[in-house]
Amino acid sequence: MASQLSPQEIHPASAVVAKDDLVIPLIDFAPFFEGTPSDKHAVALAIINAFQTSGFFYLKAHGIPPSVVSRVFTSSTRFFGRPQSQKDALGWTTPQANRGYVAVGREKLARVDEPTSIESLRASNPDLKETMEIGREGVNGLPNRWPDHLDDEGKNFKETMQAFFDSCKLLHVQIMRAIALGMNLPEHYFDALVGDGDNTLRLLHYPPVRKDVFRDTSAQIRAGEHTDYGSITLLFQGRHGGLQVRSPKGTFVHVLPLADTIVVNAGDLLARWSNDTIKSTRHRVIEPPRPAGEDVANEASDSYPARYSIAYFCNPNMNQVIEALPGTYGDDIQIAKKYEAITTGEYLTQRLGATI
Ligand SMILES: O=C(O)CCC(=O)C(=O)O
Ligand SMILES: [Fe+2]
């Protein structure tokens, strides 16, 4: 059966990261749309193989033009450059809403198995980042916190982010089609289950940090070790690295920005939906590594540059009941369902309530 191919035999993937048993391939999505049925199947297998091993892959030819991504980054940078009072006035309120601005130090990402330590972690070493969370538009009682009443720049921000939200929403559905095929499910299996777009667009800004902050406080990081919560995350990285993924050996490996690609990783709900055949892998953000050949002037600088990134957290529909997918359990394969059924909404509210 084709799904028993070894990773090396799967055609469209080549490894970008291969360290300490963590292998993260680069997958070209173009053949999924333009290729023969067998090309399409090969892409699906490469994706499912990546999700079943490292839980991460880079994706190129994903269909969102570089010019669009660059406009979103510009708009995000300008937003974070606004006076603190303007940003605070758009503040995040509740886990149910999960929309609005989150100031530096408010969120402390942590491992799911250590929920009680969050307060003490936040007090000692808050995440050195600020974020803007944008949810699905038009949900009753849960408005997005747009800056469009402030000025033209604010109006432009709203339009740019709404359009980007919709492009990412489509990409989610397309990647879920590849996952369905890779799991021997019908291609459109997930369409109606994830198609509502109950997703979150998160703009991230990690301000410049003095090097001695990282040096003197070993627990200080830009985003603490965590797994993502939903189905998949589409991560657009700016110029500066810092993202690290935990390897099977327990080390953290840099997953650097690669031009015109995104990093896609599986979240906890997809892992749960797949009865843990798909992995949602821990990751974190620290200071960027020193680039090879970096000049002396830069090396001598006493701070690390700002990092901007954009995470689009995809979810199944809020009212979707998540329980083990066909083919991931049963007497024939002697695997039991590992989890109780839960709706996306219940699950996310539990998780978000624990970190903010
Ligand atoms: O900034 C990044 O590269 C990653 C952010 C992240 O992992 C998250 O917000 O869940
Ligand atoms: Fe994350």
From TrEMBL:
Keywords: Iron, Metal-binding, Oxidoreductase. It holds the Pfam family 2OG-FeII_Oxy. Residues 197-316 form the Fe2OG dioxygenase domain. InterPro entries: DIOX_N, IPNS-like_FE2OG_OXY, IPNS-like_sf, Iron_ascorbate_oxido_reductase, Oxoglu/Fe-dep_dioxygenase_dom. One of its GO terms (molecular function) is metal ion binding. Belongs to the iron/ascorbate-dependent oxidoreductase family. This is Fe2OG dioxygenase domain-containing protein. It comes from Penicillium alfredii.
